[in-house]
Amino acid sequence: MEVQLQSDPWEWEKPMATYLLRYHSDQLRSIASSPDPNLHYPLFIDFAELMEEHPHLARLIFSQPTPYLQAFDNAALLSHRIVVRDLEQEKNVVEKNFIHVRINISGSPLECSETFPTIGRVRVQHRGILLTVKGTVIRSGAIKMHEGERKYMCNQCKKSFTVYPEVEARNSISLPSICPMQKLKPCGGTKFQYVENTVVCHDYQEIKIQENDVIVTGLLTAKWSPELKDVRCDLDPVLIANSVRRTNQLKSEMDISDDLVTKFKQFWDHFKDAPLKGGRNAILRGICPQVFGLFTVKLAVALTLIGGVQHVDASGTRVRGESHLLLVGDPGTGKSQFLKFAAKLSNRSVITTGLGSTSAGLTWMLEAGALVLADGGLCCIDEFDSMREHDRATIHEAMEQQTISVAKAGLVTTLSTRTTVFGATNPKGQYDPDQPLSVNTTLSGPLLSRFDIVLVLLDTKNPEWDAVVSSHILSEAEPDRANNDEDLAKVWPLSTLKRYLHYVKETFKPVLTREAERVISSYYQLQRKSATHNAARTTVRMLESLIRLAQAHARLMFRNEVTRLDAITAILCVESSMTTSAIVDCIGNALHSNFTENPDQEYAKQERLILEKLGSIDDFSDMNRMGD
Questions:
Q1: 55-63 and 65-86 helices cross at what angle (nearest 10)?
Q2: Strands 453-457, 325-329: parallel, antiparallel or unpaired by DSSP?
Q3: Residues in Cβ contact with 48 at an 8 Å cutoff, skipping those fewer than 6 apart
Q4: How far is the C-alpha of 167 from the C-alpha of 237, rounded, in Å?
Q5: Which CATH number is correct for 1-104, 3.10.450.50, 3.40.50.720, 3.30.70.20, 3.30.1640.10?
Q6: What is the C-alpha separation between 301 and 593, in angstroms, rounded?
Q7: CA dihedral of residues 372, 374, 380, 386 (deg, nearest 10)
Q8: What average pLDDT does range 338-349 have in this prediction?
Q9: Which tens digit of pLDDT belongs to each residue from 458-506?
Q10: CATH number corresponding to 111-245
């Protein structure tokens, strides 16, 4: 198609309409088939496609978006009427009054840093062009109605023209000083009369964003701040949005090549005879490698990030698949290091402190806090015990029902918080092993019961451990001479580990075998019988936690089936969460837990011990024979 060099936006309307009919006829037909003629309909076009077909027009839209986007809207109506005429023989075809072109800049030259700056780099030089910014919606105002346009008629030449509100003047209408019609032969009229019933209103909503989870394309301008007595009136930067895209889905998608998936499969095929030592533990060593040992914590972090399978029970209630983890420990035990590393492993994460982790603040607009901003991802909360009382009450609902209900200032709504919570806190004073967790942490029993795993890291004196840790820290300070090839049997780089956790979480939906169900059920019943010291933890939530952790371990092991191994591992994780163990006497301090030389043999011993304590080893042997 030849490029025309018209400079007047309205002269482009026919070429624009031809372009829309050629490339977007499906959208035009869909709009024509919609029943309501008074709704405002979007028509989405790709800037990259427009750039290839009409490079001159694309440059004009970029440099002068206000007049040329208005011309594009007129062209959309023109092409729509042509489609309606072509479809007049069909039923349910209605001519529409309002169609607006929305620009998608993905894959176009506008994704460069000059036209797609971070929020902090927006400057006056960006004013007036088609600008794109990326941010997180932290406030959303109520949907209102505002005047989008109205017509006036010149008393001199009797021709009508459209007037648009000025954002700079808080959407007020300003009439031109002289008649804008007949530019070649102006009439010189200065008096205008409003044309009845020509006001067009739009739905209008203000959102406030900070970096980094929506992509907004529009026109950068400014508006005067509200007039207040004895307060200087400033110009606030405003982006009049042409299109808004949510990036939650984009962030949840990760580029995982077929070659990498093949590499994962080959890794597990190689270690099928030693799945724990060569397979699982090699992966776990890649978690926070700068911290020596802490096997139990690294396993807990991996299982928490992977999570279980969400399901709906018989009553229709959704049971969460996300797991929650709390680290309680003395200063200097590596809690914050794990928080930061876990945030790097998650596609979508928010790191905050207890005082900063508001669930949902409210003024005249709804403002999202940390839990809402982390929806679909991970919320890391350091200094969990310093959380305000109001937010502690709110987090109960957020962690279990995965919603936050807000009823304030005339606004009633529910916010989604499908979030994995990873908290860290110091004990209250000197940790007393003889007291329950709720006393040592100042966190209530109901709140503690919502955590699938609670690990206590006590900095007790242990000369042998101190010597090993100091040697590790000193060796970390030496220059890195390691080979950089990605041999997964030796090292799991952060990028590969992140992709692996994402892949197993999205791919595998493990189902419990009868054997795994029996192990978990027997352990839960035993805990209920012996629960005195950990009454707040041994609720039905423990059973749900065991299932989630077992499913997460099956995913970690690259399987779609929850076996006895996964159930036993889940039990060991929950046992580590107990201040007094129901069946395992050798858990010890999680801070001093290390990777064993022969984890497969160690597991066999622990499995035998647990099944004997559960009193059902004969039953399991019988069930195995029945299965055979």
A1: 130
A2: parallel
A3: 105, 106, 107, 108, 109
A4: 11
A5: 3.30.1640.10
A6: 14
A7: -10
A8: 87
A9: 777 777 767 777 776 776 655 444 444 456 777 888 888 999 999 999 8
A10: 2.40.50
